[in-house]
Amino acid sequence: MLKRLRILVLLLLAGLALSERAQAAPGDTTRVTIFSQRKLTHYGFYDTTAVMPAAGRRYRKVLMHYILGRYPCPPGTQYCGSWDYTTRVILQPPAHDTLEMARIMTPYATDWLVRNKTHDYVVDVTDYAPLLVGNPGFRFDYQGYSWGFTVTVRLDFIEGTPPQDPVDVRNVYDGTFAFGRTSDPIEAHLPARSLVAPSAGTIALKSLISGHGSDPAGCAEFCRKFYQLLINNQWTSTTSLWRDDCGKNEVYPQTGTWVYDRGNWCPGAVVRRIVQPLNGLTTPGQPFTLDIDMQTYTANNQTSASAQYIWSSQLVTSGAINFRTDASLDEIIAPNSNENYVRENPICGGPQVRLRNLGSNRLTAVAIAYRVQGRGPTQTYNWTGDLAYGRDTLVALPPLSTLMNNTAGGRFQAWTASPNGTRDQNAYNDTLTTRFAPSIQLPGSITVNMTTNNARNGLWNETSWQIVDVAGNVVAQRVNAASSTTFNDNVRLVPGCYSLRLTDLGCDGFSWWASPATVGSMRILNSAGSVLNTINGDFGCEYTLNFQVAGPLASAANQKLLNALDVYPNPSHDGRFTFDLNLPSTQDVQLRVVDALGRRVWARALPQVKATVQQLALDGVAPGVYALEVRLADGTTLNRRLVID
Q: Where's the Peptide-N-glycosidase F C-terminal domain (predicted)?
């Protein structure tokens, strides 16, 4: 009997332990896979169902991971994974509107197989949490006419209290509507709707809209149009249906015309949701009318009027704001090895994070602490500003020494503290951690070898470059370059962190297969002429290479020497500086000023000096960035950057 009682007690304790584990704590994540490595083999719908987590839980955030990959098509297949097609993830909850949750455009990915490449697109779908229960249906809509892609769709349910509890989502407009066709005007599909505002909480119109087709005017894929939102017959806003940043796509390069801007979308990118809050425009608990008026347009040739918009506008209602004070660290942009931040990484200078206010009180101050885990101290940056609820800002943090002298990568961590000088009511969105790779190292003497193509912007070539230090000072550059010309710019750099920034005014790089221009090139060479780095010219609008110039850490004596030199005012408006030198002993000193290409523009010898204050007059020297070199008797050189503006 006693033995049975002991067994019963053990079973009860085990059951309690399992029960405690089943009740996940805030921050715990439940993952549900909807599609797994699904090969896209036909145009149209791919339907399935999925079992959702148990009802009754609150989720701080629900994230959709849409992982696109490739598979080899059968021999002889044309255009395998080669085109930019519309794909949509659609939720089909029982007894409810069918709702489009996300829209992603496939990239031109002919080379993905040989590159063994996939891409994980992440979309916040927290609004749909009340409908992600039970065993709902899901539809993947593939509007492609060739095959070769695979798709995995997964939902991550992150437990905790959301900024606002989502209540409901309903369609207002949903469908594919002709544009510019007199027999089927788009306004017939966008009539005024009679709706009712919730008595509490918030309400917003959230839309996924993308333009397609190509009539003689390029509509609607390649024409810039807009719509107006009317509430109770009153104009409230005008929204452009255009993406003007396709040449800055994180998924690049691609094997097609990825750089061309389009009707509110880009190849290989998530279609951005248009969010229009309605609370200040409606009365709680009262009916209102909502109307969208599309820009007037009629195709000149009705026979070829192929323009259309894929349109999904949803009315999203949410509960009251749950926290008064909540500073959220939304994302670490750099340092970060995640593929969605490839253009910004790797870095060696100042980190970049996105800060968002998710409290009802305006956020005016917060401390942001950050570090490389396991290396060096924690730094703190005190941010000040003014963010209303839901608003965010990009914060550039001061440089971190453990990033500037890093050759192995590691884990970077940042967190917020003391928002508005008080306690944060929601600690679960305060901290983020990323993995990162190190930036490359280059020697202090390099040559930027650039051959321009023949693409012109006015008199000059479209492509230019600058090298800037961590303070944002330009230390070398090649701008207003002649076309079809080779330049070898010798650059000397002191130890530190730098960024080589390329820009192309045509947003098609200096070497792109679809450009009518000739092919350019750019390489970084060492002093012996060996190639250290080759820049891929298919970068679209811009490209940044962050790099380190290594050097020994300054000893206490050397640090004292560094502090012995001061030059002011800097920048100087007229080229005149005050030179203040205070050395530990009397000695001969050589002064030299060189430009960004290492050419001497001024020199002077100072015999037997220890402490001196003199005028350094660079009369007639053109505005720009220069380097002052102070060479001491033992060969030590002190450097200061001079700016004439």
A: 198-295
CA 120 – CA 565 distance, rounded (Å): 51
**202 and 149 within one domain:** no
Contacts of 518 (CB under 8 A, 6+ apart): 453, 454, 484
Residues 6 or more apart whose Cβ sits within 8 Å of residue 623: 644, 645
Pairing mode of beta strands 202-212, 440-442: unpaired
Q: What is the CATH number of the domain that holds 301?
A: 2.60.120.230
- Asked whether residue 274 carries a pLDDT value surpassing 90, the answer given is yes
Task: Compute φ and ψ for 451, nearest 5 degrees.
Answer: -110, 115
Backbone angles phi, psi at 314, to 5 degrees: -125, 145
Sign of CA dihedral 94, 100, 104, 105: positive
pLDDT of residue 563: 62
Greatest Cα pair distance in the chain = 105
At 137-195, the pLDDT tens digits run: 999 999 999 999 999 999 999 999 999 999 999 999 999 999 999 999 999 999 999 99
Q: Which domain-ending residue is among 146, 162, 178?
A: 162
Is 482 inside any structural domain? yes
Using only C-alpha atoms, the chain has a radius of gyration, in whole angstroms, of 30
Mean pLDDT is lowest, of 108-117, 225-234, 482-491, 574-583, for 574-583
How far is 463 from 453, CA to CA, in rounded Å?
9
Give the pLDDT mean for 11-33. 56
261 & 179 share domain: yes
| Mean pLDDT across 324-337 | 98
Residues 46 and 103 in one domain: yes
Residues 94 and 31 in one domain: yes
pLDDT at res. 272: 98
> Is residue 122 domain-shared with residue 210, that is, in the same domain?
no
Q: Which of 478, 365, 357, 358 is nearest to 420 (CA)?
A: 365
Do 619 and 597 share a structural domain? yes
Spatial separation of the C-alpha atoms in residues 381 and 296, rounded to whole Å: 50
Residue whose structure tokens are 């297969």: 513
Cis peptide before 253, with omega less than 30 degrees from 0? yes
Helix (H, G, I), strand (E, B) or coil at 510: coil
Is residue 215 in some structural domain? Answer: yes
Confidence category of residue 619, pLDDT binned at 50, 70, 90:
confident
- Residue 55's pLDDT is 86
pLDDT for 219 beyond 70: yes
- How many degrees, rounded to 5, is the angle at CA 271 between CA 217 and CA 50? 135
**Residue 14 pLDDT > 60, yes or no?**
no
For residue 524, give the CATH number of its domain: 2.60.60
Percent of the chain predicted with pLDDT > 90:
79
Element (H, E) at 372: strand 363-372
DSSP lists the bridge partners of residue 240 as 226
Give the residues across from 444 on adjacent strands: none
CA angle 90-95-96, nearest 5°? 45
3-state secondary structure of 135: coil
Question: Which of 250, 221, 299 lies closest to 107 in space, CA to CA?
Answer: 250
Domain that holds residue 225: 163-316
- 8 — pLDDT class (breaks 50, 70, 90): very low
User: Which amino acid makes up residue 215?
Assistant: D
Q: Hey, what are 495's tokens?
A: 């130890």
Q: Please check whether residues 389 and 445 belong to one and the same domain.
A: no
The pLDDT value given to residue 551: 64
Q: Please tell me whether residues 565 and 638 are part of one structural domain.
A: yes
The pLDDT tens digits of the residues spanning 521-538 come to: 999 999 999 999 999 999
